[in-house]
C-alpha cells in the first residue's frame, strides 16, 4: 500500500472514533432517561398517567431510539453484526417501540377524552399518527420487492426512513415538553427537570444523526436517477 493511500484513509479514523464516542455518550443518556423515568413511575404505580409516561418513555426514548440507530456505522452495540442481523434487530426494536409508544399515547388520549389542548398533548397526537404511518410504511419497505410495480424499493425505503425520523423527532420533542407537565414537576426537583430536558435533547440529536445521514444518501441517489 502506498503512503498516499494511507494518508487518504487516516483522516477518516478520528471522525469514526468521534462518532463512536458520541454514540457511547448517547447510550448513557438513553440509559439514564429510561432508568430515571422507570424509577419514578414504578415507585408510584403503573396506572393512568404513570402507565402512559412509562410506556412512551420505554417505547420512544428507549426502543425506538435504539432501533433507528441499528444500521448506523458508529453504533458500538451493532457495528459488528451482519446487515441481515441488523435488519432483524431493527424490526424487533421498532415493533416494540412503536407498540409501546402508541399504546402509551392512546392511554392518555382516552383518559383526556381526545381533548388535547396543550403543546405536549398536540405533539403526542402527532407522534401517535406518525408512528402508525411509519409502521405501515415499514411493512411496505419490508415487502418492497413485491410492491415495486407501484413504487421503487429505493423510494419506498427513503419514504419509510423519513417517516421514521419524523416520528422519532416529534416523539422526543413531546417527551421534552412532558417534563413540564404536573405529573413530572410534582415528582422531580427543578434540577432533575433541567437535566432530563438536556439529556433528551442530546439523545434526540445524536440518535437522529445516523438516520438523517442514511436519508440524505438515499435522496441523493434518487435525485441522480431522475
UniProtKB/TrEMBL annotation:
Alphabetized InterPro entries for the sequence: CYB561D1/2, Cyt_b561/ferric_Rdtase_TM
Cofactors required: heme b
Transmembrane segments annotated in the record for this chain: 21-42, 54-77, 89-110, 122-142, 154-174, 194-216
Source organism, top-level taxon: Eukaryota
Main location: membrane
One GO cellular component term: membrane
One GO molecular-function entry: metal ion binding
Topology in the lipid bilayer: Multi-pass membrane protein
EC top class, as a word: translocase
The EC number(s) this enzyme carries: 7.2.1.3
Pfam families per the UniProt record, alphabetical: Cytochrom_B561 (PF03188)
Protein name, entry field: ascorbate ferrireductase (transmembrane)
Source organism (scientific name): Drosophila grimshawi
Amino acid at each position: 500500500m502506498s503512503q498516499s493511500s494511507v494518508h487518504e484513509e487516516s483522516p477518516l479514523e478520528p471522525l469514526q472514533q468521534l462518532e463512536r464516542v458520541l454514540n457511547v455518550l448517547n447510550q448513557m443518556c438513553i440509559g439514564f432517561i429510561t432508568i430515571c423515568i422507570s424509577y419514578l413511575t414504578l415507585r408510584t404505580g403503573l396506572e393512568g398517567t404513570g402507565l402512559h409516561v412509562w410506556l412512551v418513555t420505554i417505547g420512544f426514548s428507549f426502543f425506538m431510539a435504539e432501533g433507528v440507530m441499528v444500521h448506523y456505522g458508529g453504533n458500538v452495540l451493532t457495528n459488528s453484526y451482519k446487515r441481515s442481523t441488523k435488519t432483524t434487530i431493527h424490526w424487533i426494536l421498532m415493533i416494540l417501540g412503536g407498540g409501546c409508544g402508541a399504546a402509551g399515547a392512546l392511554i392518555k388520549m382516552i383518559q383526556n377524552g381526545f381533548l388535547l389542548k396543550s403543546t405536549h398533548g398536540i405533539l403526542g397526537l402527532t407522534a401517535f399518527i406518525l408512528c402508525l404511518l411509519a409502521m405501515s410504511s415499514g411493512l411496505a419497505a419490508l415487502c418492497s420487492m413485491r410492491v415495486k410495480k407501484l413504487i421503487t424499493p429505493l423510494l419506498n425505503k427513503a419514504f419509510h426512513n423519513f417517516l421514521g425520523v419524523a416520528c422519532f423527532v416529534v416523539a422526543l420533542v413531546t417527551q421534552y415538553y412532558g417534563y413540564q407537565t404536573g405529573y413530572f414537576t410534582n415528582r422531580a426537583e427543578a434540577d432533575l427537570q433541567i437535566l432530563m430536558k438536556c439529556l433528551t435533547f442530546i439523545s434526540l440529536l445524536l440518535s437522529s444523526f445516523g438516520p438523517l445521514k442514511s436519508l440524505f444518501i438515499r435522496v441523493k441517489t434518487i435525485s441522480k436517477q431522475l
